[in-house]
Amino acid sequence: MVPSSLSLRDRTLAPERYHQVTKVALVLLCAIVVTGAAVRLSGSGLGCDDWPNCNSERLVDVSTGHAAIEQVNRLFTGAVAAAVAIAVLGARLRTPRRADLEWLAYGLVAGVIAQILLGALLIKVELHPISVQGHFLLSMALVANAVVLVRRSGAADGVEPGIARLRRHRWVLAAVTGIALVTGTVVTGAGPHAGDEDVTRLDFAIPTVARIHSLTVLSAVAVALALALRLRASPALASSATARALSSWVVVALLQGMIGYVQYFADVPPLLVGGHVLGATILWGITVWLVMDDRSTPAL
Questions:
Q1: Is the separation of the CB atoms in 79 and 28 below 8 Å?
Q2: What would the DSSP string read from start to end of 135-155?
Q3: pLDDT at position 176, please?
Q4: Are 66 and 42 in contact (CB under 8 A)?
Q5: CB–CB of 180/217 below 8 Å?
Q6: CA 239, 244, 248: angle at the middle one, nearest 5?
Q7: How far apart are CA 193 and CA 42, in angstroms?
Q8: N or C: which end of the chain has fewer CB within 10 A?
Q9: 3-state DSSP: the chain helix, strand, coil percent, rounded to 5?
Q10: For the chain, which residues make up each domain, given as ranges?
Q11: Model pLDDT for residues 66-83, shown as the tens digit of each residue
Q12: For residue 295, which phi and psi values (nearest 5 degrees)?
């Protein structure tokens, strides 16, 4: 007789289905970066002045607009945590099981827990800009982890990563792009959208840090264009997936530059800043995708 229900130990998950699970986790991890930025840009960063309660009197308080916005973001964090937990469970149920996918899924769990703890610290230090910078950069580490998980879960079982072609050049691009992200957080820390009217700001001249950020972005674009020329010089790589991903990188980077200049001269309107944060997240995801090792390809 076939049992009416299977224990969790007996359940399995096809690799294709698990790949879809990882994609959902990646999308949610990117989305919460934008919702977190929305909290700051709407001035709702201290809409709840306690954690995990909204305040000393209520666990949930939507009596003000700022509190409601902060509460929605916290609820969305719960959805992200659920997606990450499902990614871990799926890695254990996936058939065949792969240790690399399980470790990457556990990495997401560690990152989300760290984000929750850092979120509590943000309230305690009243949104000090350095803590806000750390919150964003930790989000980028989580996005990177999720991109690797998506890429690896979509690869065939038993195929070991090969040596990435133009590996050093890709890593230079990743390093310069990472520096651009960091300088961008410095501009944010010195800028007007602090999350609350009374929050401390970094004591830097905004024009100066904005110029430094622009130079790092332009440097990243120059490295990417040089990489594109090297790819075009190789018939085997000119129409490869790497070349297509790099094309996407260049398009997003140029759009980011345009948004950055427009928002600077338009007195940084919140909507454009939110778009800039989304673009930065997408650009970083593409960067991580680019630097990952190719599979079954010889070194160049």
A1: yes
A2: HHHHHHHHHHHHHHHHHHHTS
A3: 97
A4: yes
A5: yes
A6: 155
A7: 8
A8: N
A9: 70, 0, 30
A10: 11-158, 160-300
A11: 878 888 888 888 899 999
A12: -110, 135
